[in-house]
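G., the chain you wanted modeled:
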Amino acid sequence: MPLPIMIKQGAGSIVNTMSSAVWMGESDHVAYQAAKSGLIGLTRHTATVGGKHGVRTNLVSPGVILTGAALKTTTAEFREQILASVRSPRLGRPEDLAAMVAFLFSEDAAYVNGQSLLVDGGANFT
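Predicted structure as tokens:
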């Protein structure tokens, strides 16, 4: 487990990921939603335990990100439906998610700890 090592060295950053679908609530996939929802508590616990030792923990929840796999497994109609539900002019790209994670790992995010951040084009507000 990396937390004890990071606490011992006095610094570190952990970024957990979960689906933004958890914030919406769905009628299907209850086990997946329950498991992913547990990451919120784990993130906050780890932020509390590690925070005073210089270890930050945050959570990123991506929405629809147009990876190669997403483009292959979804239809244009589905992507248009999702686009209609976001408050941005386009769906997410892998670079959007990577930029948020890179920020959270960087010293620019030194005062960001225990947060759950949505990278979903404004589809959900928390």
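The radius of gyration is 16 Å.

Shout if anything looks off.
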